[in-house]
Amino acid sequence: MSAFADRYGPWALVAGASEGLGESFARLLAGRGLNLLLVARRAGPLEALAARLRAKHGVEVRTAALDLAAPDLAGRAAALVDGLDLGLLVYNAAASAIGPFLDAPLEAHLRVVEVNCRGPVVLCYLLGARLAARGRGGILLMASLAGGQGTAYVASYAASKAFDLVLAEGLWVELAERGVDVLACRAGPVRTPAYLASKPKRSVPIMEPDAVAERALRRLGHGPVTIPGALNRITAFLFGRVLTRRASVRLMGRATRGLYG
Q1: Contact at 8 Å (CB) between 160 and 117?
Q2: What's the half-sphere exposure (Cβ side, CA atoms, 13 Å) at 189?
Q3: Rounded mean pLDDT, 156-177
Q4: Most-buried pick from 165, 185, 239, 257 (CB within 10 A)?
Q5: In this structure, what are the phi and psi dihedrals at residue 88, rounded to the nearest 5 degrees?
Q6: Average pLDDT of the chain?
Q7: What pLDDT is recorded for position 1?
Q8: In this structure, what are the phi and psi dihedrals at residue 13, rounded to the nearest 5 degrees?
Q9: Alpha-carbon torsion 124, 71, 166, 98, what sign?
Q10: pLDDT for 199-220, tens place per residue?
Q11: Does the predicted TM-score (pTM) go above 0.85?
Q12: pLDDT (average), residues 165-189
């Protein structure tokens, strides 16, 4: 067994695993010898991915079609992991409401909060307790460069990713003494079906899902935060350390207006 599998295996839960970045995490974890519990809303893509991973890597893969905004998420998640020696949580699921804040229905913004904020809290609480009890494991939350400041046209999404970032940083300190590694991955644009379906109006530097997932997994244990891509790290430094908060908010808003305005 590899050192990675020994620390973060034998089972990993990947939330938002049906396509894109979640699929990349699933493939890379299976390649490291971990058994997988794959969770997303659509059963079909999950089952197709599970079949490919079983055939290629010989690992055990279970799937669960589950809406991470479900009011009974805690109970349903507890039932899914019952009996599994789970060592890693990857929370990749995300909802977004793109466009002027007041143009989207309130329900869309509330779903962002449910999936991007409440979901991670529920699973971090539930699975964090199990990891702490066994004295080893990891939690990886997908954040975003957009969460570094207020971001027009994705205001609720950006705010939710700021929540994920700060949650991961706090848990990184608390759970380290219990043997649990916590990491927030602040990704920029990633070539996923969800990003492409948002129909950005101009091209921007974009990373491939495998590169983002590989960076995040390599940096697990070296938290609390990682930023995939040299250009993204430069951008985060400029927006977070060089520019004033006001300038950062305006510049980021100008960029998202260019994409979606």
Answers
A1: yes
A2: 16
A3: 98
A4: 185
A5: -150, 135
A6: 96
A7: 62
A8: -105, 125
A9: positive
A10: 898 889 999 999 999 999 999 9
A11: yes
A12: 98
Q: Cα dist. 29→10, 35, 135, 145, 255 in Å?
A: 10, 8, 20, 24, 34
Residue 261 reports pLDDT greater than 90? no
d(CA 151, CA 259): 12
pLDDT digits (tens, 9 = 90+) for 108-125: 999 999 999 999 999 999
Name every residue whose Cβ is closer than 8 Å to that of residue 184 and which is 6 or more positions away in sequence: 140, 141, 142, 143, 164, 165, 167, 168, 169, 223, 224, 225, 226
Amino acid 163 reads F
What is the pLDDT averaged over residues 239-256? Answer: 96
245 vs 228: CA distance, rounded Å: 23
Catalytic residues: 157, 161
Question: Which residue in the block uniquely carries the two structure tokens 């808003």?
Answer: 253
Q: Which of 28, 9, 6, 7 is nearest to 17 (CA)?
A: 28
Residue 92 tokens, joined: 């990749």
How far is residue 253 from each of residues 151, 154, 155, 249, 260, measured CA to CA in Å? 5, 9, 9, 6, 10
pLDDT at 203: 87
Strands 180-187 and 137-144: parallel
Measure the CA–CA gap between 34 and 55, rounded to whole angstroms.
14
Distances (CA, A) of 126 to 121, 129, 162, 201: 8, 6, 21, 40
